Structures are given as structure tokens and as C-alpha cells.
Amino acid sequence: MGNSESKEHPEFLDYVYKLNKGIELTEALQLSLKEIDQIDLEQLNRIGLRSYEKNKWSINKIIQHLIDWERIWCFRAIIFARAEGTIPVAHDQEIMGENSNANEIPIEQLIEELISVRKSTIRMFASFNKKILETNCMFFEYEMPLSAIGFTITAHQIHHFNVIKERYIPLDK
Q1: pLDDT by residue (tens digit) across 150-159?
Q2: Quick check: 110 and 63 in contact, CB under 8 A?
Q3: Homologous superfamily assigned to 3-172
Q4: pLDDT-derived band of residue 9, with 50, 70 and 90 as boundaries?
Q5: Strands 7-8 and 142-145
Q6: In terms of pTM, does the model score above 0.90?
């Protein structure tokens, strides 16, 4: 898809900004880290590898998915921040989820890894100045400012943590 066919401000960004409730990026990233720290690991261990519906991921796979996609988004952010020039390709979350070994990893280890990745993400975004954060990022089918990548990371977590609260936590009854 050429530049003339790209979509500025893709539709999903409205959802991203709504989930972040209009707060600044630095605050959104810090708040997301606090949310991870507040996870009830005992409860998640009681739920184990169950899912709320056939063919849905376990909580372990959801957490691995958050880790994987945060790393992908951070890779993309660095490409844009450093003006490398490559347009990142799409990735298939279903293939990645299917090929993860998340169900073999204790939930405590996955949460610890998510915390480490988030702390790294926070440091990376803190290193970007205003000009970098406003850089226009061209993806395979849309474009958006680099700062939106940070908001996408936090919104992605909010979305999946909401799914866990609404659909998985009731399994602990």
C-alpha cells in the first residue's frame, strides 16, 4: 500500500485514546505498571490454564501476548525514532499465540517479565524528546504519531486486563 492509500489516524486510535482517558503518556505508562503490580497472583494461579470459552487463550497466553506485542511496538518505535526508514510489516497474533509456550511458564514468571518489559518501555519513551514523539509513523496500512505507540501499549494492557476481569476472574468461584 502506498503513502496515498494510508489511513491517517486509524479508527483503533480513538479506542486507544478513550482507554487512556486523556492522560499524558508518561502517566499512562506509570499507571499501567501500577496495574501490573496489583495483580492477584494467587487468584490467577487458582484459575490456572482455564479459559472462559473453548479456543480462547489462557491467562498465561494473554500475558505472553502482552509481552510479545509490547516488544514489537517498541521495536517499531525505535525504527521511527531513529528515522531508519523501514515500514514495519504486520504480525499475526494468532500464529504467535499458537506457537508460544506460555502455558508451560508459571504466571509469576510471566508477570515478572511483563514488569521488566514495561520498565524498559517507560525508559525508552522517557528518552524521546517532543520532536521524536511527534514523528509521523508510517505502517503497512496506516500512519500515526510515535507517541500513539506508547498509548497503544497501555491501551492494549487495559483492554486485556478488562477481559481478564470480566471473563476469567468469574472462573475463580
Answers
A1: 999 999 999 9
A2: yes
A3: dinb family like domain (1.20.120.450)
A4: low
A5: parallel
A6: yes
